[in-house]
Specification:
It is built from 9 helices and 3 strands. It is mainly alpha-helical. A hairpin with a 2-residue loop joins strand 1 and strand 2.
């Protein structure tokens, strides 16, 4: 059984960009539901995968579309939580150099990220990704994630589904993305992911399944 990962900070730690109320709903309702459905589908199919990454990459074709959607959403949300920091950070080292090279500076990267996310039609995710040594901004639809996009390593992601921002920013997705980029990106994670994309260290991975854990344990404790 996969578990819902604990948030790495307090529910109110990302205010005012993301409120405590949004974090409770988003983590304990939306994310929990994706984890639960993934576990139910795996149990029904009598599958015991070693990792969530294996589930996402292996769920192909129409038959496994529901499993892909739920497993990928479980992964994307867990990565989204760790891709944010309550403490304002800035990119440094090799990552800062790569940002300058690919975009012409952090402000230009922000423009590209906000423009991509604001212009994305419907639900999905906006990513900063490494493709080898270079960087790119892209968006994916619905549950789609970079685990199934060969050659891309995610550095940061922001949720574009309305449940991510509607309580706090109403229909102003661009305002949400602008405030998000100014305050919340976890550049430490982005830097270690960038290093992993160059073959140095492991990339971030979803917590492995636990035989004894219940998919609802984490939320029930809150
Ligand atoms: Fe979400």
């Amino acid at each position: 059984m996969f578990v819902l990962p604990e948030l790495p900070y307090d529910h109110a730690a990302l205010e005012p960009v993301i409120s405590r109320a949004t974090m409770h709903l988003h983590h304990e309702k939306h994310h929990q539901a994706y984890v639960n459905t993934t576990n139910e589908l795996l149990t029904k199919a009598d599958k015991s995968p070693a990792s969530l990454e294996e589930v996402v990459r292996g769920a192909t074709g129409d038959v496994e579309r529901k499993l892909f959607n739920n497993a990928a959403q479980a992964w994307n949300h867990a990565f989204f939580w760790v891709a944010m920091s309550p403490r304002k950070l800035t990119p440094g080292g090799a990552l800062a150099e790569a940002i300058d090279k690919a975009f012409g500076g952090l402000d230009k990267l922000k423009d590209a990220f906000v423009t991509e996310g604001a212009g994305h039609f419907g639900s999905g995710w906006v990513w900063l990704a490494a493709e080898g040594a270079t960087l790119k901004v892209l968006s994916t639809h619905d549950a789609d994630d970079l685990l199934v996009h060969k050659g891309l390593t995610p550095l940061l992601v922001c949720d574009l589904w309305e449940h991510a921002y509607y309580l706090d920013h109403k229909n102003d997705r661009k305002g949400f993305l602008t405030a998000w980029f100014d305050a919340l990106p976890n550049w430490d994670l982005a830097q270690s992911q960038y290093a992993a994309a160059q073959g140095s260290g492991e990339g971030w991975a979803y917590p492995p399944p636990s035989d004894s854990a219940q998919g609802t344990a984490s939320a029930a404790a809150r």
